[in-house]
Amino acid sequence: MSPRGEPGGLAGDQDSRTQFSRVAEAYRSSPTHSDPVSLARFIALAELRPNHVVLDVATGAGHSALAAAAHVRRVVGLDITPAMLDQARRLAAEREIRNVEFVEGNAEALPFAAQSFDRVLVRSAPHHFGQLIPALAEAYRVLRPGGAFAVSDCSPPPVVRDWLAVVEVGRDPSHVRSRALEEWRALLQAIGFTVEHAERIEQEKDILEWFEIARVSEATRRQLLDYYEGAPQAVRGQLLPQWREGRFYHRYWHALIRARRPLDAGV
Ligand SMILES: C[S@@+](CC[C@H](N)C(=O)[O-])C[C@H]1O[C@@H](n2cnc3c(N)ncnc32)[C@H](O)[C@@H]1O
Questions:
Q1: Rounded to 10 degrees, what is the CA torsion of 150, 67, 31, 128?
Q2: Which residues line ligand 1 (CB under 6 A)?
Q3: Distance of CA 45 to the CA centre of its chain
Q4: Does residue 223 lie in a domain region?
Q5: What total of structural domains would you count in the chain?
Q6: Residue 244 has pLDDT above 50, yes or no
Q7: What confidence score (pLDDT) does residue 16 get?
Q8: Angle at which helices 132-142 and 181-191 pack, to 10 degrees?
Q9: 58 CA from centroid of ligand 1 (Å)
Q10: Is residue 238 part of a domain?
Q11: What is the distance in A from the centroid of ligand 1 to the CA of 21?
């Protein structure tokens, strides 16, 4: 169980499709991914307006696309895993949300014309992308000048990132890499975005629930819990791991970023 760094896009994409086809149903009802507080915070970050046309990249079971749909004219949710899109369409039908459509595609080569969206969203997914930079460049390309890109993704502090990556990959082999807030800022600015908002939020995570959503086997679960037992002091001091009533919790971090494509930018 070691992090696989940033491989060629294809291997990463295949891993994502395999992993998310196994767990698509669990993501539809996942308390973490459907959490109304986290969704409301993400929607507020994106500063949506009623006339907006929005793209939700790596939409998964569609939680953020469906949350956005109430605030805008039209939403397109894109994902590389057909089984996830089936779950998203099912949720849209159950909620009778009609201004959203779901399409299959790769974040690294978006099947849309330049400047066709007012907002691009991506939540809990960039750490799965085989190649992040092409995905960021694609978000920039499809945004109209003045449009905004809203990102939420796991972002542990550098002192725990590499240690925690072993857990992330053991839990979900399609995990590629989490980025620290400063890495995010530098990557977005290099593409041409202006970073308007960048914060790291902290929450307590129910680790056994997190394993369950990814359908981790009993053997892997035991192996990962043993790995936690051997965590160095510097890591424990950040994670603050603890068992309560048979559940295991520790601190976890997300980056929340809004970056704008400048008004005077060319195509
Ligand atoms: C953890 S889920 C997040 C889903 C959703 N954004 C949410 O917040 O609930 C990650 C999603 O990223 C998708 N994904 C991974 N790599 C992708 C890529 N290169 N292009 C498009 N989707 C991708 C997976 O299929 C999966 O549905």
A1: -40
A2: 13, 16, 20, 33, 58-61, 63-64, 79-81, 84, 106-108, 123-125, 128-129
A3: 15
A4: no
A5: 1
A6: yes
A7: 84
A8: 50
A9: 4
A10: no
A11: 11
